[in-house]
Specification:
Strand content: under 5%
Distance between the termini: 85 Å
Shape: elongated
Number of strands: 0
Number of helices: 6
CATH topology of one domain: Multidrug-efflux Transporter Regulator, Chain: A, Domain 2
Order of helices and strands: HHHHHH
Length: about 140
């Protein structure tokens, strides 16, 4: 008996099993196929398409990249670069980090503005216009004029 006869074939999953295994729904799997993030396996004459461990790993990569803030286009670019282009992947990650830093800065400015508006509020005083609403209305008037 040779060593190859002892190896078990790689388990294959239906689309439903794949979706469950990676924690997404079937429509997401189909969407990833349509946009080229994963390959749609050939459908046998009788039966269902079967997905391999590599597909599970690829979807897990997609999910981890999304948690880091990469959108599907950026993930497709990372996958296209592949494992052998570390420099290009690093540049992409640095750009993403810069974008996130700007978003954090913008959110901090938004939080500061909201804090200022909240501090101008005279809640509890009857028959007084709300400074928050008045400020937002004034901003809206400037935008529409």
């Amino acid at each position: 008996m040779n060593a190859h006869s002892d190896t078990k074939p790689e388990p294959e999953l239906t689309i439903g099993q794949l979706a469950t295994a990676v924690g997404i729904n079937v429509e997401s799997v189909r969407y990833y196929q349509r946009i080229g993030l994963i390959i749609e396996p050939r459908k046998p004459e009788h039966g269902f398409r079967k997905y391999t461990k590599q597909t599970v790993e690829r979807i897990m990569f997609i999910k981890r990249a999304q948690k880091l803030g990469f959108n599907l286009k950026e993930i497709a670019d990372l996958l296209a670069l592949g494992d052998g282009n570390c420099r290009d992947v690093r540049i992409s990650a640095e750009k993403k980090r810069e974008k996130i830093q700007k978003q954090i800065h913008d959110l901090q400015a938004l939080q500061d503005t909201l804090t200022q508006l909240i501090n101008t509020c005279h809640s509890g005083k009857e028959n007084q216009k709300c400074p928050i609403v008045e400020t937002l209305l004034a901003t809206n008037r400037v935008i529409t004029e």
